[in-house]
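In this section we walk through a basic example: taking a raw amino acid sequence and producing a predicted 3D structure, encoded as C-alpha cells. The instruction is simple. Fold the sequence below.
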Amino acid sequence: MELIVKVAVICIVVALTALLLQRDTPELGLLLTLATVVVVMLFALSFYEDVAELMDTLLAESGLSGTLFIPILKIIAISLVTKLGGDVCKDSGQSALADTVDIAGTFCALLAAEPLFREALSLLTGLG
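The resulting C-alpha cell sequence is shown next.
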C-alpha cells in the first residue's frame, strides 16, 4: 500500500511539472515523463523476486501445469508493457505509434497464449 502511494505522488508531481514544461519546451516534459517511467519501473522491478516467489507458491499449490500457468504470467507482462508503451506514445502525441504498440502487444499475447490454445484444443478433441 505504501509503495503505490509513493508512486502515485511521484507521478502526479511529475505530471504537473511536465504540464508546466510543455508550454515552453514540450521535449523536456516528455523526457521528464520518460525518465520517471524508467525510474519507477526499475523501483517496481526490485520486487520481482517476491512476486516470482509468490507465483511459484501459487503454481505449486494450484496443481496446474507450468504449461498452463506460465503463459498467463507472460500475457500479464505483455499487457503491462503494451499499456505503458502505448500511453507514453499517446502522451507524446503519437497516436499512430500507440496503436501500433497495441497491435503488436495483441499479437505477442496471442503467441504467448499458444500453449493454452493447444491444451484447449486437445481437451476438446478428447471429448469427441
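Looking at the output, two observations stand out. The chain has six helices and no strands. The chain has a mean pLDDT of 89. In the next section we compare this with other chains.
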